[in-house]
Specification:
Oligomer: single chain
Distance between the termini: 43 Å
CATH superfamily of the largest domain: MetI-like
Strand content: under 5%
CATH class of the largest domain: Mainly Alpha
Order of helices and strands: HHHHHHHHHHHHHH
Structural class: mainly alpha
C-alpha cells in the first residue's frame, strides 16, 4: 500500500514537472525567436519552413537600428522617464501609505475608499482631461507630460498602506520619544523597513512606464521625444517593413526591465530575510 502511494506521488510529480516544462517552453520560445530573428536578414525572417535559429549572425538589423533611426534617443527617453516616474511614484505612494496607515485625520476612510475607486478607471477615461491639461500648461512634447501625470499611483498607496500596517506603532512612538521628527521617522525608519514593498512597487511602476504606449502616443509628436515602445512601431509602415530592426530593438528594450527586476528582486529577498531575523 505504501509503495503504491509512493508510486502515485512520483507519477504526479513527474506529470507536474512535465506541465511546468511545457509552460516554460511556451513562455520562453517567443523571446528566443525574437532574439534569433534580430540576427536574421529579411529573407530568412519570412522563410518557410520557419527557422528558429539563423544560419549565420547578421548584424545588419543592429546597424540599421543604430545608424538610421533615433533608437539611442528613444532608449534614453524610456530609461529617463521610467526611472523618474518610478522614483516619484514610489516616494509619493510610500508617503501617502504612511499617512493612511499611521495617522488619524478627518475623512480618512472615505478618502481611502475614494482612492481605491480610481483603480476601476481605465486610462482611456483619463486621456481626454489629462491631454487637455497638458495643452493648457504647454507641456506637450516634454518629459513633464510623460512623468508628472502618472507619478501618483493608487495601487502603490494601497500596497504601502497594507504593508505599513504591519509595522508596530511602538517603534515609531519610541522614535518620537527620542526626539525624532516625522520626516526623520519616515526616512530613517519607514523607508528602511519598507524595502520589500518598495521593490514590488519599483518593478510594477518601471515596467508600466517602459511598456506605456497610449499616453506617449497622445502627448508626443516629435521623433526626438519618442520612447522605445512608441518609436519601434514607426519602423513598420506601408512603405517600409524593417521587422528585423524591430526585433533587434525589442530585444534591447528588454534589458533595462531585466536589470530592474534583478536588482529589486535582491532587495525584496533581503527585506524578507532581515524581517525574519529580527522577528
Amino acid at each position: 500500500m505504501i509503495s503504491g502511494n509512493r508510486a502515485a506521488t512520483r507519477m504526479w510529480q513527474v506529470l507536474g514537472n512535465a506541465v511546468l516544462l511545457l509552460v516554460i517552453f511556451l513562455t520562453v520560445m517567443p523571446y528566443v525567436y525574437m532574439v534569433s530573428a534580430s540576427f536574421k536578414p529579411g529573407e530568412e525572417l519570412f522563410s518557410i519552413p520557419v527557422q528558429i535559429f539563423p544560419d549565420s549572425l547578421y548584424w545588419g538589423n543592429y546597424d540599421l537600428l543604430f545608424g538610421r533611426t533615433s533608437f539611442v534617443r528613444w532608449f534614453f527617453n524610456s530609461v529617463f522617464i521610467g526611472v523618474s516616474r518610478m522614483v516619484l511614484a514610489v516616494v509619493i505612494s510610500l508617503m501617502a501609505g504612511y499617512a493612511f496607515a499611521k495617522f488619524d485625520f478627518r475623512f480618512k476612510n472615505p478618502l481611502f475608499i475614494l482612492l481605491l475607486a480610481t483603480l476601476t478607471l481605465p486610462i482611456y477615461v483619463l486621456i481626454v482631461p489629462l491631454y487637455s491639461m497638458m495643452v493648457t500648461f504647454g507641456w506637450t512634447d516634454s518629459y513633464i507630460a510623460l512623468i508628472l501625470p502618472l507619478a501618483a499611483q493608487a495601487i502603490g498607496v494601497f500596497l504601502s498602506r497594507q504593508y505599513l500596517l504591519s509595522i508596530p506603532d511602538e517603534i515609531l512612538d519610541s522614535a518620537r520619544v527620542d526626539g525624532a521628527g516625522e520626516w526623520g521617522i519616515f526616512w530613517r525608519i519607514i523607508v528602511p523597513l519598507s524595502q520589500p514593498v518598495i521593490a514590488v512597487m519599483a518593478i510594477l511602476f518601471f515596467t508600466a512606464s517602459w511598456n506605456d504606449y497610449i499616453w506617449p502616443l497622445v502627448v508626443l509628436t516629435e521623433d526626438r521625444m519618442f520612447t522605445v515602445s512608441l518609436g519601434l512601431p514607426t519602423l513598420v509602415g506601408p512603405y517600409s517593413q524593417e521587422y528585423g530592426a524591430v526585433m533587434a530593438g525589442s530585444f534591447l528594450s528588454t534589458v533595462p526591465i531585466m536589470i530592474i527586476f534583478l536588482i529589486m528582486q535582491r532587495r525584496f529577498i533581503e527585506g524578507i530575510t532581515q524581517g525574519a531575523v529580527k522577528g
